[in-house]
Amino acid sequence: MLIYQNRTRSPFKTNLLKWYDENKRVLPWRHSDIASESEVHQRAYGVWVSEIMLQQTRVETVIDYYNKWMKKFPTVRDLAEASLEDVNTQWAGLGYYRRAKFLHQAAQKLVSKQPNKEDVVKLPSEVKDLEELPGVGKYTAGAISSIAFNKVAPLVDVKQDVEGGPRPGDFNQSLMELGALVCIPKNPKCKSCPVNEQCEAYRLKNQNKITSVEQFPVKKKKGASHEEVVASLIIKFEDKYLFVKRPDKGLLANMWEFPTIDITNEEEQTNKTITSKIKSDLLVDDRILQITQIPEDDLKSLKITNCGQITHVFTHINRLIHVYSTEIVSSTGVANDATKWMTHDQLSTSDVPTLVKKVFKQYQDHVAGGRKVQTTLKLKKRKVEEIEEEISADSDSD
Ligand code: SF4
């Protein structure tokens, strides 16, 4: 929505920086008291982490995650040396786990080139070099380069004559701050905007040439989302539940989930066909057989319970999940890289995706619903018995 007129370059920048100096929020990754070279690189790490977190998440939410992250992984080296599991645990709740995985990979890439443990790991200062890191695109590279290293680096598609000049890092941050506080997508605060005199959208609106400044920027059409149907099976043994690791590429890569199978054909979405597919395709998965050690024939005769359905929306995927459960009475195999058991408590504190927690909640609700029905039936049965006893006592006394 922000469009400025080129000829008014100077007031635009001056006004914006003045407003930024007076209105910027205090954020933990904004440090101005930087003196040494190692502090600059440490700040670059903080800017990088915050920018990756902010890609899909609001500032208010990110602050807490950022502080915890920096406490757990205070340096690039600490992050590189952590396990992906620890990294995902710190990330849990922020979603889009690919971001955490890329941060981890990028840290390892940097450390592999700077093995001396005594040195602060340096981030590149140029956009083109930063873009070589996994998960760092043009915008993030521009933010790190300008904010941490004070280099002239565009964040948005603006003309060079506006980007240049002193304080390139602050200028980029002032643009971000304007977008967060004033030039917001819905009902931007144009009247109090520090650059409304230089704003082309505002001018067009005042001249009645457009109906709203919100018409800018013209939004690209989103790619069509597609539907997916799967069945997830909760396998219970004693007080534990079986999890399998997802492939290391694609959606939710390397994350733990309940054993899940695609249901591709619409005709398959009946209880009978899904149950049969779980038995014929899912329960005979090598990973499941290896940890449970239950003979295939026994697995096939297991009671499979339908616990209902839930939906979950990823960026471009609407997923329908049929939730099923079963219980096994023995499991003599050992866990491996691709499978593990987790208790309810372990699940509550683990970094499994939100979707997995939703599946488990559906299962719990189903179990609780079943218990409620059973309790009601027992109470009804007891009442009938009491009435029968009373009738029988009455007839005896007659
Ligand atoms: S005048 Fe309105 S549309 Fe233009 S930059 Fe300011 S808030 Fe955004």
UniProtKB/TrEMBL annotation:
One of its GO terms (cellular component) is nucleus. Transmembrane segments: none annotated. InterPro entries: DNA_glycosylase, Endonuclease3_FeS-loop_motif, Endouclease-III_FeS-bd_BS, HhH-GPD_domain, HhH_base_excis_C, MIG/MutY, MutY_C, NUDIX_hydrolase-like_dom_sf. PROSITE patterns: ENDONUCLEASE_III_1. Its EC number is 3.2.2.31. One of its GO terms (molecular function) is 8-oxo-7,8-dihydroguanine DNA N-glycosylase activity. Residues 53-181 form the HhH-GPD domain. Its cofactor is [4Fe-4S] cluster. Binds 1 [4Fe-4S] cluster. It catalyses: Hydrolyzes free adenine bases from 7,8-dihydro-8-oxoguanine:adenine mismatched double-stranded DNA, leaving an apurinic site. Keywords: 4Fe-4S, DNA damage, DNA repair, Glycosidase, Hydrolase, Iron, Iron-sulfur, Metal-binding. SUPFAM superfamilies: DNA-glycosylase, Nudix. The keyword Zinc-finger does not apply. GO terms for biological process: base-excision repair; mismatch repair. Adenine glycosylase active on G-A mispairs. Belongs to the Nth/MutY family. This is Adenine DNA glycosylase.
